[in-house]
Amino acid sequence: MDGLRLCALALHAVASRDRAWLLSRLPDGPRRQLTALVDELRGTGIPADPELVRQLVRERELLARDPAQHPTGARLLRASAQDVWALLRGESDALVCRVVRRHEWPWKAELLDLCGLARAKRIDALAAQLAPAAALEQAIVDELEQRLGARQSAAGRPRPARWQFLRREGRSA
Predict the structure, then answer these.
(1) DSSP characters for 26-52?
(2) According to DSSP H, which parts of the chain are helical?
(3) Buried b vs exposed e over 113-147: b needs ≥16 C-beta within 10 Å?
(4) Which end of the chain is less congested by CB atoms within 10 angstroms, N or C?
(5) How far apart are CA 157 and CA 164, in angstroms?
């Protein structure tokens, strides 16, 4: 999804006064394009989702905090908690702990919920006990990236992020 369409989705999700203010700050060309895209979104009946804005802000903040993570962690950053859980559910608590503490993942809380209360407590306790091992943790993240990519390829297409539900056969949002 190109940046203009992603901006339109984000603008669609904010309050109308905020949207008007943001659009008023743009030059005429981009403002007209974005206004047309937002009008199109409203016309399709797609609900404005404030969670989308929160998710986009979290992702941008995470990437800004750790730009080195972007090339190797982008797929994992955008993954759903269920996808990550499918990869980690059979792994040791120590390995799950190393993944969870490596980064402030947007799916962290949901993943720990999927683990169950007892396992989540064990993972939290391990966070204080395990010695830092940045290279090991990065290697684990890299491996998860590869497995996630293979899993998505096997499914025939990548799992979309929340805002990419607009994609349809033969038509981009």
Answers:
(1) S-HHHHHHHHHHHHHHHHHTPPP-HHH
(2) 3-13, 16-24, 28-44, 50-65, 69-78, 81-88, 93-102, 108-115, 117-129, 134-154
(3) ebbeeeebeebeebeeeeeeeeeebbebbeebbeb
(4) N
(5) 13
Within 8 A by CB and 6+ apart from 137, the residues are 98, 99, 101, 102
pLDDT digit string (tens) for the chain, length 173 residues: 456 777 887 888 888 898 899 899 888 888 999 899 888 888 877 777 777 667 766 666 665 555 444 455 678 888 899 999 999 999 999 999 999 988 888 999 999 999 999 999 999 999 889 888 888 888 888 889 888 888 767 665 555 555 444 444 444 44
| 85 token code pair | 């859980």
Chain centroid, CA 138 distance in Å: 18
